[in-house]
Amino acid sequence: MKAFYTIGLLVLSNIFMTLAWYGHLKFKELKWFENLGLITIIFISWGLALFEYFFQVPANRIGFKDNGGPFSLLQLKVIQEVITLVVFVGFSLLFFKNESFRWNHLIGFIFLILAVYFIFKK
User: Fold this and answer.
1) Burial class (CB in 10 A: 0-12, 13-18, 19+), 101
2) pLDDT tens column, 62-113
3) Mapping DSSP to helix (H, G, I), strand (E, B) and coil, where does residue 32 land?
4) What is the DSSP string of 33-64?
5) 119 within 8 A of 75, measured Cβ to Cβ
């Protein structure tokens, strides 16, 4: 059960992280954001990133073996990176229509899945 909580919290964390890091690139298309300066955009992104931490920190605490969770530190990191890329691809395909998912991206993801396999292999 802790594994599911950990992964669910990591997904939520990465949604906020992706919005904080890349969502501002679409602000210029929103009327009330179009004239904001860089400092304002940084503070908005920072505010979104705060919510990332509300999910990321508990995910790592719940999931880490030394806290009674099922994952080692390396496993947590690899899980987080794979989730980050999956969330990012979904985000970019939904919000950035000019981005495309090509065969070389698919091969890269296959290698990431292999990385997860090898990290979890005993």
Assistant:
1) exposed
2) 999 999 999 999 999 989 988 998 898 889 888 887 777 788 988 988 888 8
3) coil
4) TTT--HHHHHHHHHHHHHHHHHHHHHHHHHHB
5) yes
